[in-house]
Design brief:
The protein is an alpha+beta fold. 31% of the residues lie in helices and 38% in strands. The protein has helices at residues 18-65, 164-172, 185-188, 208-216, 237-248, 307-327, and strands at residues 2-6, 9-13, 69-74, 79-80, 89-94, 105-115, 118-127, 133-136, 145-153, 175-182, 190-197, 203-206, 222-224, 255-270, 273-286, 292-304. Strands 11, 12, 13, 14, 15 and 16 form a six-stranded mixed β-sheet that branches. The protein starts with a strand and ends with a helix.
Length: 330
């Protein structure tokens, strides 16, 4: 409130201090802005320093593992699913001089299950013993597979695994050991309904080539399905399963193998002989319950000096591949 002299009298007037408030607000905002900018700059600098320090630690780890190697010592023979390996998977960690490295942390990746035909894996953190070795024997499994276990230098949790140089360095030091677990078709056996077709697409015979290859791979209890009429080709699998189940039941044989072997490309004359392509479509069915346990397809191209030689070579290569899929996939 101010008193202003006007026409010889003091008049009381109320004065609003907008300008003062505005100037105060501007000063306050300016101060706040300066503080924020200072803090932001400080935070960015801090992040940059931390980032540099983090990569420095990763580079140090990369340098450390550059001087080591993980080598395979022993891989046990394949087993049938449901059984344990008779010996351990064994490896050793060595330094640049070839000496064993004790208490070295290693990550082990190994198969633990199969879902819809796809292998799933788990990991373990292990340390080398005093002699630099690692021994591992997985529990018996309920699935078959032909895959690998992997051993890599264990990355400390404090490091950033998204750093590309780190993952590349670890990958370069990874050891893969083959792990093979056979299907129980080896001891349970199977009946075969796999018809070979000629170049005109007509079924000719239940595949003796495949039957022989299964026997050669240890499947002693194997024979043609008691119900093998070609009229079942292309029909629902349940009809073929039911017809054979009525004859042999669900325990005499472990599996019913159903499928076809057809010419994808007929025998063709080429400069140095003949060539053809065959394709096999195979389904494995559990005789106990009729469930499909394997679906696989293999295509093969081969050559030969004449028609018979070409087809024979192609059938041989094809059945070798398809039987391997059955042994390690059923």
């Amino acid at each position: 409130i101010k008193y202003i002299l006007k026409k010889g009298k003091y008049i009381k007037m109320r004065v609003k201090s907008k300008i003062v408030l505005l100037l105060f607000s501007i000063a306050l905002i300016s101060f706040s802005s300066c503080a924020t900018t200072k803090n932001a700059t400080s935070t960015q600098t801090e992040k940059k320093i931390n980032k540099t320090q983090k990569y420095d630690l990763e580079e140090q780890f990369i340098s450390e593992i550059s001087n080591i190697s993980i080598e395979s010592l022993e891989i046990p023979k394949p087993v049938i699913k449901g059984r344990k390996f008779k010996s351990d998977f064994k490896s050793i960690v060595k330094n640049a001089e070839g000496n064993p490295v004790a208490n070295f942390p290693v990550q082990l990746k190994f198969p633990i299950s199969k879902v819809d035909g796809k292998i799933e894996y788990s990991t373990l953190l292990l340390h080398t013993s005093e002699d630099g070795t690692i021994s591992f024997n997985p529990e018996s499994t309920s699935f078959s597979c032909d895959t690998f276990i992997e051993l890599t230098p264990a990355i400390p949790e404090t490091l950033n695994i998204e750093y590309e140089k780190l993952t590349e360095a670890v990958a370069a030091k990874t050891l893969k050991q083959s792990i093979k677990i056979k299907s129980d078709i080896i001891n349970k056996g199977a009946v075969l309904f796999v018809w070979e077709h000629n170049e005109k697409g007509r079924p000719t015979s239940n595949s003796y080539t495949m039957l022989s290859e299964l026997r050669r791979n240890g499947v002693a209890l194997i024979g043609n399905a008691p119900v093998s009429d070609t009229s079942f080709i292309g029909k629902p699998l349940k009809e073929l399963y039911d017809a054979n189940y009525e004859v042999i039941g669900g325990t005499m044989y472990g599996y019913l193998l159903y499928g076809t072997i057809k010419f994808e490309v007929p025998v063709t004359k080429v400069d140095d002989g003949y060539t053809c392509t065959l394709v096999a479509e195979i389904v494995g069915i559990d005789m106990k319950n009729g469930e499909t346990t394997l679906t696989t397809s293999v295509s093969c191209t081969a050559t030969g000096s004449n028609w018979n030689n070409c087809v024979s070579n192609c059938k041989s290569e094809l059945t070798t591949s398809i039987v391997n899929n059955i042994i390690y996939g059923l």
